[in-house]
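Researcher: Please generate the 3D structure of the following complex. Treat every line as part of one assembly.
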Amino acid sequence: MTDPISLLGYRFFQYALLGGSVAALVCALIGLFVILRKESMIGDGVAHISFGGIALGLFLGVNPLITALIVAVLSVLAIGYMRRHGLAQSDSAIAVMLAIGFSTGLILISLAGGFNVDLFSYLFGSILTISTTDLLIITGLGLVSIVVVGVFYKELLSITFDEEASRLMGVPVDLLSNILNILVAVTIVLSIKVVGMVLVAALLVIPGLTALQLGMKFRDTALAAILFGVVSVVIGVFASAVFNVATSGVIVFTLVAVFLVTAAWRRLT
Amino acid sequence: MEKQPVIEVEGVTISRSGERVIEDASFKIIRGDFVGVVGPNGGGKTTLLKAVLGLLPRDSGMIKLLGTPVEQFRDWRRIAYVGQDSINFDQSFPLSVRELVSLGRINGENIGHRLVTEDWRHVDEMLEFMGIADLSEKRIGQLSGGQKQRVFVAKAMVRYPDVLFLDEPVAGVDPETQERFYMKLSNLNAQKGTTIINVSHDLSSVFCRMNRVICVNRKINVADIGDEAGFTTALKKAYGDHFHFVFHEHMCEGLFEDDRPD
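Model: Done. Output below.
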């Protein structure tokens, strides 16, 4: 067993804690809007679409987070377009984009010479191997997301609660929906290194679901979601290092445990 | 003040799923009017209201809001609307009463800015005015039907709109609350000059409180409340010849005398 305190002296561990906390914070915040818009599936969809972007990056030899970001943003805009123009319902639009992204990824991967360790680190997360560049991308995108939500806080809340009423109040609903979807794409991509694309939807949705159990007003619910997300990631990072098990597994396991305990506590009190 | 039309509707026909819901509607609503929109269920009242707000497409005709064709209308700060289905929101949505009412202060000009102290002052005043100040930290899903209605009306009125559209705002609320609610509307109309367009099934409230009535049953008939014969004819056209509404000035007595707008 490793001494948890001595771990704090290692740079890789500091990077893991910092990058993980930023990703958890942004995921929890954006995720709450996503849940309330009843679009939880978009997280899983975008994560799978990003696979195509990651494969493209590995194929071209550029940082896969950058190509994943471009692919993810384009795909959420396409999903929004398909929905607005009646080409497909939200969930079927996501299914179509998911198929395109994942199949393209598989082709690119086989062209590039098959699966390797790099690819697995994106599939299942590899928070303990975050590079300085990765950390800069994660914190940079995280800060931008937080600022955008801060600036449009009341409008995002308004369109999440009632789109039609917001439109009649002069809120640019379509523009803000697009901005929110882009934030979802950004959030997913910046979290891929932390928990991997297979489990990233959990980081997006579970903190918000846990906070919603508490029955508080919006501001407090958002703060609670952030707290649940960040605490779960910190616990997960420590526990995985100490017991030498997969970090993303422990993070998501902790998220689910906190959710179940909160739900049980609410039912019992 | 000059009597400007706030709403102009001319020759408007609206179809939904291939069926004509509104046929050749023409009317004007003047600043300061307190208008009751009545008619049988399925007669097109909500459709008409939504079309006037530009929420529904129409086959033909012209609609102007505050002098501007509704397609080009951007001055949403001056308009407020409470839809029939407002209170059918996701009941677990995490919003306090005060948070929801504060969203009513959003307008085209403060997008991307925080609400300022003055906004919050208006929010608290309106909570007080609607008699829901003691509920301000409650979650909206926990309220009774009548309380929810009042919260949504507060959200609309906190904009201090020039024109207030209400689609059955007090349907399903107990008579006492309805009465207090209409008294507040009358005050708003009389003191602030707010033009109010109110869809209602309650003909006596329309008769006692409002100055004009729009009867909707595919065709539109408009009458002044003061013009008893015209009012009766319009009602019969909407509800059918067998319909009979008995006017008694004294039915408004006691209830409304003190604050009845003339």
